[in-house]
Amino acid sequence: MSDHIVKSYDRDLEALGRRIAEMGGVAEKMLAEAMDALSTFDVDLAHRVVSSDPRLDALQREIEENAILTIARRQPLAVDLRECIAAIRISGDIERVGDLAKNIAKRTLKIVSEARVPRAIVGLKSMHEIAAMQLKDSLDAYALRDTERARAVWQNDSDLDALEDSVFRDLLTFMMEDPRNISFCTHLLFCSKNLERIGDHTTNISETVVYLVTGEAMPTERPKTRVPDFGLKDEAAQ
Predict the structure, then answer these.
(1) Surface-to-core class of residue 113, CB atoms within 10 Å of its CB (0-12 exposed, 13-18 middle, 19+ buried)
(2) Is residue 236's pLDDT more than 60?
(3) Across the chain, what does the average pLDDT equal?
(4) In the chain, which residue ranges form alpha helices assigned H by DSSP?
(5) How large is the average pLDDT for residues 125-148?
(6) Which domains does the chain have, with CATH numbers?
(7) What per-residue string of b and e applies to 124-140 under the rule 16 or more CB within 10 Å gives b?
(8) What percent of the chain has pLDDT over 70?
């Protein structure tokens, strides 16, 4: 971040970075707690995740408003303008991550009374490990303005896609073994889709980091190893 003659300008931009870091911490905690709640069928923890979402929404609105005010007051150019645009983009992606973690917590509340095949959650735990690491690396890339780390996150998104396909096949097997598993496993399918979408948002953050530092856009086509979407709708907007 460049130094300006008007020090309050520097403080405005630094404040945006601090708020992004705060949002990232809240989203990481929500994701970890949502998966803990799903793994242990912890109702109280699931409710705690759901109740955390308004805090993330408020932080996003604050970042957007402050970034817009900075643009209006300072009329930034080049990297300073990209700092403001990046803050708006990244805060939006982090807010979506929080929404998806909240959706996993809500699914947990729906299946807690019919925890039929706990081993079906094993694949989701593996997806969570990758998604959580991708989220951490993308946020670190933003904090450090590290384009190499950002590009690595972008490249690794295909690993999460491939694992989602594997989880789908496992859950389908559980459903075919016993039709009574269908409702339980269907909720888990939506949880796996939520984790896959979190991976997409981490790659969005990485693309924004590269844009912020270099002014250049990443390729429009991301590395993908899979085709089917299984017809599961994105729950981020719910």
Answers:
(1) exposed
(2) no
(3) 90
(4) 7-40, 43-74, 78-111, 122-144, 147-177, 182-214
(5) 97
(6) 1-214 (1.20.58.220)
(7) beebbebbbebbebbbe
(8) 91
